[in-house]
Amino acid sequence: MADETAYPEGTAGFLFEMGVLKNAKRTGWWFTGNNNPESIAEHSFRVGIIGAVLAMMEGVDPAKVALMCLFHDTQETRIGDIPHIGRRYIDAATNQTVTADQVSAAHPAVRDGVQRVVEEYEAKESAEAVVARDADKLECLVQAVEYRAQGNTLVQDWIDTSLNSLKTASARELAEAALTMSPLKWRQTFLG
After folding, report:
1. Rounded to an integer, what distance in angstroms lies between the CA atom of residue 18 and that of residue 92?
2. Is 87 exposed, middle or buried (0-12, 13-18, 19+ CB in 10 A)?
3. Contact 66/55 with Cβ under 8 angstroms?
4. Which has the least CB within 10 A, 1, 41, 124, 128?
């Protein structure tokens, strides 16, 4: 068994690296003229919430889904948020490879646990991974609806692409609801 006391700096370093996601912007929104889009951390937070909600609706493990959602874009501290059009021209390391490097000096339990979560998400095979991936797409759709409500008329491609990629009935149901309501409609419940 590895000496677990030898890993605090590597684990703490991983935590500091994850803080980069609070400052790194989601670059795809730049194509719509949005010069100050959400950060990767903001996106990942809501993906986690959506993932847990979808998991509850779909009858799978919400904690496992939320964990996958939380780690689904952590690699972007190293490779950035490459827009889909850019992926055509760049040969980047796999998310599993980046993750392995990110946690290589971390506590063994952290290293193994984070890698296992990312590997399951990337494999796209478990019910939880399918729900987590739907959460990522649904969050993009919800964000696009919010940007559209703010007057950005160039987000329809993001809405269409996200909607067409949803696999679960629950994600499609929530997407349809999001598309037919104001992002602030939830306030009416309490404001009368």
Report:
1. 19
2. exposed
3. yes
4. 1
Amino acid code (one letter) for 120: E
Q: What pLDDT is recorded for position 192?
A: 65
Spans in the chain with pLDDT lower than 70: 1-6, 192
pLDDT, residue 59, reads 98
- Total count of domains within the chain: 1
Cβ contacts of residue 36 below 8 Å, gap of 6+?
25
Q: Contact 77/97 with Cβ under 8 angstroms?
A: no
Q: How far is CA 183 from CA 142, 150, 170, 178, in A?
A: 8, 10, 19, 8
Tell me the pLDDT tens digit for each residue of 171-180.
Answer: 999 999 999 9
Measured CA to CA, the distance from residue 184 to residue 169 in angstroms comes to: 24
CA 17 – CA 75 distance, rounded (Å): 10
pLDDT of residue 1: 45
- Structure letter (DSSP) for residue 11: H
CA distances from 190 to 50, 68, 146, 149, 186 (A): 22, 33, 20, 21, 8
Can you give the pLDDT at residue 107? 96
Q: What is the CATH number of the domain that holds 154?
A: 1.10.3210.10
Helical packing angle, 169-179 and 127-149, nearest 10°: 0
